[in-house]
Amino acid sequence: MPPRLQLLSRASAAVTTHSHQTLAPFLYPCLQQHRNASILSELSDNKGAYNKRIRVGRGPSSGYGKTSGRGHKGQKQHGKVPAGFNGGQTPDWIVNGVRGEKQHFTTEMSPINLNKIQYWINAGRLDPTQPITLKELASSRCIHGVARDGVKLLSRGSEELTTPINIIVSRASASAIAAVEKAGGTVTTRYYTDFAVKKIRAGQMDPIHSLQSRIIMAEDSVEGAEIAADALVEERKRFRFRLPDPTSRKDLEYYRDEGHRGYLSHLVREGHGPSLFFRTPGTGSRSGKKGASRGGAKKGGAAESNRLW
Question: What is the CATH number of the domain that holds 196?
């Protein structure tokens, strides 16, 4: 501690004992004792700014010396132990494995409700003037991740939907379709795969158009065929991959159904149903003899009513 000045100490005592006495203002700072303490020992980085790597086997003072935190002896000290390792005997996941039936034809879809879509539109996070696909829903964080089979539209909060939207999803409930069309919008269901979902979110695949969905543009006219060809050329420039179409009967029948607003419903002829197996009642003629139908099939090829499209 630095020595105090006798004059200043007497002056401060005089001030405390006799309040009527005054002291020169320039002596006030000298009345209190000051220490020039160093703060260098207290300096540190901001929390999370510096992560020090733990060095093991560098002596007992670090806390990770000698055995380096592995303990004494055993397989866990000498190397790694595989997950599920049970000492060399039959693993538990084989003895007591997953039991029960495995569903091979189940679909995994991310649900989205109409009230959330309207809330996102009101917040300016979705543009109702453009088609809303799974890419816009995922990029705007309206849904957190997209399942392997796409998105399913549900009708919760349908009374809150007031904006007409054009939405393209994998599937949609009947009540959701009715609510969107009541508001002046449209719903289109189309086929997606796990690979397609990943490439669409990466911007490497068209989320709407495929080869079969362009048939409606180039059905009968030469001009329409030229437009479709130009669209395909432009698509190959913009996207690296082409959006696939369904191949299984189950998916084909779903997306050929107008009730589901399937994108392949334009391929169904008027008066015919979406089924690829059952003939639509009243569309085919049945002959009384079995041989007549067989002979007609041999002579004239496949019957008109047996064609898919």
Answer: 3.100.10.10
CA angle 117–119–123, rounded 5-degree value: 115
Range of the domain at 145: 110-253
Q: Which long-range contacts (CB under 8 A, 24 or more apart) does 249-254 make?
A: 249/276, 249/277, 250/105, 251/191, 252/276, 254/171, 254/189
DSSP assignment letter at 58 = S
Q: For residue 211, what are its two tokens?
A: 């080869």
Which is nearest to 179 in space by CA: 197, 196, 157?
A: 157
**Residue range 155-190, pLDDT digits in tens:** 999 999 999 999 999 999 999 999 999 999 999 999
Tell whether 42 is covered by a domain: no
Token digits for 229?
A: 């060809």
Lookup result for tokens 């191949």: 247
- Is 185 within a domain? yes
pTM above 0.70, yes or no: no
Residue 22 confidence (pLDDT): 62
Amino acid at 283: T
Q: What is the pLDDT of residues 195-243, one digit of tens each?
A: 999 999 999 999 998 888 764 444 445 666 676 677 777 777 888 899 9
Q: Which of 190, 147, 184 is nearest to 172 (CA)?
A: 190
Phi, psi of 252 (to 5 degrees): -65, -40
